[in-house]
Amino acid sequence: MDTVISNGGLNGLGLKKVLVVGAGGVGCELLKNLGMSGFERVTLIDLDTIDVSNLNRQFLFRKEHVGQAKAKIAAAAIEKMLHGKCKVDPIVGNIKEERFSAKFFGEFDVVLNALDNLDARRHVNRMCLNAKVPMVESGSTGYLGQVTVVHPGKTECYDCNPAPVPKTYAVCTIRSTPEKPVHCVVWAKQLFELLFGPEDESNLLADLAKNDEDAAENGATPMAEGRSLQWDRKQSSEDFAERVLKRVFWNDVLRQREVAEETWKTRAPPEPLDVLKIAKQNADADAPTNLLDQLVWTKEQNAKCIFGVLKRFVERRNDEIGNIQFDKDDDDVLAFVTSAANLRASVYGVELSSAFAVKGIAGNIIHAIATTNAIVAALIVLETIKIVTIDQGTDPKDASLTTYVKRFPNSTRRGKFLVQTERLQAPNRACFVCSKGRLELEIDLSRKLQFLIDKVVRGNLGMINPSIYATTAGNVNIIYESGEGLEPDEVEMYESNAKKSLSDLNVGSGSTLEIGDISQSLNLSVLVTHNPALGSEADPVEFSVTGSIPESASAEAPSSAVEEEALQRSNGNKKRRRKDDGVVFVPTSKKEKLQMLSDMIEIE
Amino acid sequence: MGTDGEALTLSTEEAAVYDRQIRLWGADAQQRMSTSRVVVVGRVRSNLGNELIKNICLAGVSSIILCSVNDVEGQGFLGDSLDEVRNSVQDINRFVKVDIFEGEEAAANEVKSSTAVCLIGFDSVPSIMSIAKSCRQGGIGLFVGECIGLFGAVFLDLGVRSYAEEDKDSGRLIEKVIDYTSYADTFDDMGVPKAPTAPGAIALGEMLRIKSNSSEDVEELTVAYARAVAEMYERTGVNGKQRLSEQHLRSFAHAARTEVPPVSAIVGGIYGREVIKYLTGKDEPLNNLFFFDAIRSTGIVECM
Ligand SMILES: [Zn+2]
């Protein structure tokens, strides 16, 4: 920072081209700080529109802007605030679109991430590596914040640390033995998707739709494809609601009492609930409507709410059924999930929750406040100024820092730190993104190709438009391609492949998959091992992907202590793990080391 | 939070706007915030002043009273004139009442009926000592913030302060108390630390002395600034090998007279966070100095 000032204050920053990705909480603060610091050429990309819940921190937006594009409103607000001194060029779009190519990224001096999701962060990281543009990455959650820098090829990239493992619950806890409100909420979300969403064979309640033995009992005809629980288009809304409620809160509860018999020796067994009767008995009472309230609805209110909302979907939104996504801001959806979760909680003697609390759990809402965003955005600008003014010959590893904002001061022998730094690390040599590490995949080969594409290739490897070539015993076979420029017959063929199992596509243990994404300039070699136990009740982990250093590279002796460390780490030492929102939190055991690193940071 | 069945008395519209922060600090805290009157005194138009005002306005206090004293112009982002600042603040959150006054007399009056008093600049308000004393008498939290070049600080005098802290094992809230050293015992009449021993406090003292030095002699400033920085680093363990070059010293001296925007944003962020903690009575407040150093990107907490 001192060098910047001595080079004639903050002058000269106006010529630098900056790309800001995200005009949310951090983005708004960031734009203001960039403009105030003397940056004049900013391009801003954001896909989103303004929501009323943004107004408590995204201070460039007003009530009358709700529903409008964030990028446009933010750009206009900065222009006005700084009297046109900073020009912000807004682009309303998704950063993952193909038009934002490596060439597009290459036009900037630095790329600043102010994102709120993992996928986009991983994608921007890859684009910056391809374009060889430095990137500043940030995260803000509650009172915690983090800013770090990626110098392509010289320091760790975003994918050098293991991808987060999404929080999962044991299948039987959700299906048969819930103990906490969150288990009931997860169940209610699954029930919602089963009833109203697209078909998903991995839905935890899929058996509920297929085991249709109560259908006959209720006088209904069992349907083909085992989707009897869904609305059958001839059914009245009342019949539909009755059948769902009877099946899930009565018949299935009786069945679960038998299935998990052992469990009920130590805790009270579930009590089936005649939801319909409760709802109709209280016909005069109003169904709850205020979804922001923190009041917990009574059992009667929940019964009335779910009966009403089930009918509502059939009466008013029947053309959407089979295609409705879970959306925490859709009032019908939230009312359904809240009342279903609470009725389930009643059945199992679990504490009930308010709609406010359910919205937070079901929607994975990240707590966000203005002050942390302001600090994070300012730390991004400090790092940006250093990047664009760095002297030739300075090792970028020494110029940039990772900075953490903490909730409480971290006591060390050097003092108590509320804002603390860490040196950047050399790239992880086993990283499949920046160091071409090799991957090994363990999976049950009876899984469909679609599963591999959704969960492994898009979910775990973060690709957007993948192509997959399978090599088995020397024979190469193109099994999947996506993206622009495919012929209709190709699209058709790959769609039909997606429905086949991997073994039917001739992928076996020892096969190699070449998985690539041209837009990300990424091409991976993945060795496959068949493991039929994965994804079963005994082992709910659905697959495992591990990275290793390619043989050719690992044969070389590490040339420095830093590389040695990178090597050790890649060989299985636990490293930092990102949370869902992409923020890295340093475990307490690393505190001392972190402090030592911060002490090493010199004035220059 | 959220599961205690507590009803909101905030309006539905307020609940929608404040949703994300209510999820963090709870509806009861938001409620307390919405009954608070915060007085900001001193250089309200500085960048640090603007940052703090924006942060507490977004948090949703009942009213913000701005008392401009020895103010600057053209450094913040909320506007040049006081009227512009008021309009911008009002625009950011229309649930907040905003008032503007000029001069120390108005400040002295407003302080008495406030929940918290936030000074911008240790040297901006000549009557700081008497404001500090009336805060003590009235049981009102006093905060003082300052940004000088690449450094910035926030000082807190919250009297005898009790706050609720979540017990790690039981999750229950337990009440704790901090007995703060008073402003009057810590600073002299000129707003300079009396006998600082901790590195941040020493640096703050030196920075304030340099700032009040009316000398146009850059050499003199350079020497003073260098001494302050060297002293601070020696005490935090950065010494010996790393000598500051002549060029660095000059750059510090130049920066000492200006605000560096990201530094104000960081200090204003921590400042806002502490004021919110005070208004809501949640979480352990800092005791009693936060010092930020943009050269190293570190923010330390120490007790003066
Ligand atoms: Zn990497």
Automatic annotation (TrEMBL), chain A:
The lineage of its organism: Eukaryota, Rhodophyta, Stylonematophyceae, Stylonematales, Stylonemataceae. ATP binds at residues 22-27, 46, 54-57, 70, 116-121. Keywords: ATP-binding, Metal-binding, Nucleotide-binding, Ubl conjugation pathway, Zinc. Zn(2+) binds at C157, C160, C431, C434. Residues 549-561 have a biased composition (Low complexity). Coiled coil: none annotated. It comes from the Eukaryota. Residues 272-359 form the Ubiquitin-activating enzyme SCCH domain. Residues 549-585 are annotated as: Disordered. This is SUMO-activating enzyme subunit. Pathway: Protein modification; protein sumoylation. Belongs to the ubiquitin-activating E1 family. The active site is at C172 (glycyl thioester intermediate). GO terms for cellular component: cytoplasm; SUMO activating enzyme complex. InterPro entries: ThiF/MoeB/HesA (IPR045886), ThiF_NAD_FAD-bd (IPR000594), UAE_UbL_dom (IPR028077), Ub-E1_IAD_1 (IPR042449), Ub_act_enz_dom_a_sf (IPR023318), Uba2 (IPR030661), UBA_E1_SCCH (IPR019572), Ubiquitin-activating_enz (IPR035985). GO terms for biological process: protein sumoylation. Residues 6-397 form the THIF-type NAD/FAD binding fold domain. PANTHER family: SUMO-ACTIVATING ENZYME SUBUNIT 2, UBIQUITIN-ACTIVATING ENZYME E1. Heterodimer. GO terms for molecular function: ATP binding; metal ion binding; SUMO activating enzyme activity. Residues 448-533 form the Ubiquitin/SUMO-activating enzyme ubiquitin-like domain.
TrEMBL record, chain B:
One of its GO terms (molecular function) is SUMO activating enzyme activity. It comes from the Eukaryota. One of its GO terms (biological process) is protein sumoylation. GO terms for cellular component: cytoplasm; SUMO activating enzyme complex. This is THIF-type NAD/FAD binding fold domain-containing protein. It comes from Rhodosorus marinus. The lineage of its organism: Eukaryota, Rhodophyta, Stylonematophyceae, Stylonematales, Stylonemataceae.
